[in-house]
């Protein structure tokens, strides 16, 4: 689900429709629409956008897809990117293009603002490039209008100082992505939590071939690198006493020899969490990007036809 603030943001456009006009640059984007637009229900198999806080979409969409079949096929490979949680506005941005809101009181298209596109690109492009996916030309941020009353602006508020490593989602994709990018992966019991780090009482390494596989004791894991060393880690603070299973901790070692966390999650019984942990023993991180590229190019529709299998692939 998108943020509860999304629906008011979208509906706010209705209040400015009278007297609104398109700039010349924006009009160029809409001058070659292939057919008369119409409002249709967002289908259940459009997994990227089904269940968001509006139920009808404009067709053709803003990516020139003219049928629901084409929309669902082209949207499916983007679901793993959404599950990486690389930016909190990823779904808002993608759905503004694949399933743009359709308001019967408004006959003009509602584009994402350039700032929304740039925010999502800045958050996600590095993760995509790591697995061999460049930011696609169809999402070139220069195509979208600068901020005005007729475009969708970013919703996410980054003033929240919670440490990034402590605000990760426990999706299958996100856990495996961090596994491949982390030098150490631990199932850890926590001794104490400070403003800048946590002290591990004991831990077992989950990295295959790691010599520290038996036990790691009395290790400090810092929440963030650089100057931002005092961000709160509510993930650990709120659950340390009640969590008998411990925590999943992934980190890298900085030049000073300190371990800096990438991901900290309570050890869970959830299906996606358990499935990701089982994959640690056989995951080939070096071939991950190639598998994703070949799969997405060869048969993007298969992500939609077999949702239980597309969980294997990450951006």
From TrEMBL:
Annotated ranges, domain FZ: 34-154
Gene3D superfamilies listed in its UniProt record: 2.40.50.120, Frizzled cysteine-rich domain
BP term (GO), one: non-canonical Wnt signaling pathway
Keywords, ordered alphabetically: Developmental protein, Differentiation, Disulfide bond, Secreted, Signal, Wnt signaling pathway
Pfam families (UniProt xref): Fz
Compartment annotation: Secreted
Signal sequence extent: 1-19
InterPro entries on file: Frizzled/SFRP, Frizzled_dom, Frizzled_dom_sf, Netrin_domain, TIMP-like_OB-fold
All residue ranges annotated as the NTR domain in the record: 163-285
Keyword Phosphoprotein carried by entry: no
Family: Belongs to the secreted frizzled-related protein (sFRP) family.
Record protein name field: Uncharacterized protein
Source organism of the structure: Plectus sambesii
């Amino acid at each position: 689900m998108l943020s509860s603030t999304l629906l008011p943001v979208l509906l706010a456009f209705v209040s400015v429709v009278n007297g609104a006009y398109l700039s010349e640059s924006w009009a160029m984007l809409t001058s070659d629409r292939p057919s008369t637009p119409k409002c249709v229900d967002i289908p259940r198999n459009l997994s990227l956008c089904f269940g968001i806080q509006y139920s009808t979409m404009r067709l053709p969409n803003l990516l020139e897809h003219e049928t629901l079949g084409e929309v669902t096929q082209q949207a499916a490979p983007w679901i793993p990117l959404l599950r990486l949680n690389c930016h909190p506005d990823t779904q808002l941005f993608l759905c503004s293009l694949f399933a743009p809101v359709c308001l019967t009181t408004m006959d003009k298209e509602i584009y994402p603002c350039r700032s929304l596109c740039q925010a999502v690109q800045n958050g996600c492009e590095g993760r995509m490039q790591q697995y061999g996916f460049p930011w696609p030309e169809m999402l070139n941020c220069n195509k979208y209008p600068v901020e005005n009353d007729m475009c969708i602006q970013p919703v996410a508020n980054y003033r929240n100082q919670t440490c990034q490593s402590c605000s990760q989602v426990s999706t299958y994709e996100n856990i495996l992505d961090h596994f491949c990018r982390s030098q150490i992966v631990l199932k850890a019991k926590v001794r104490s939590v400070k403003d800048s780090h946590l002290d591990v009482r004991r831990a077992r390494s989950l990295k295959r071939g790691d010599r520290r596989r038996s036990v790691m004791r009395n290790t400090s894991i810092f929440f963030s690198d650089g100057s931002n060393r005092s961000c709160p880690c509510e993930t650990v603070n709120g659950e340390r006493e009640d969590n008998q299973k411990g925590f999943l901790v992934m980190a890298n070692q900085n030049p000073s020899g300190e371990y800096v966390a990438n991901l900290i999650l309570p050890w869970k019984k959830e299906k996606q969490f358990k499935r990701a942990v089982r994959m640690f023993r056989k995951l080939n991180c070096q071939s991950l990007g190639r598998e994703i590229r070949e799969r997405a190019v060869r048969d993007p529709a298969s992500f939609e036809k077999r949702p239980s299998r597309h969980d294997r692939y990450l951006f």
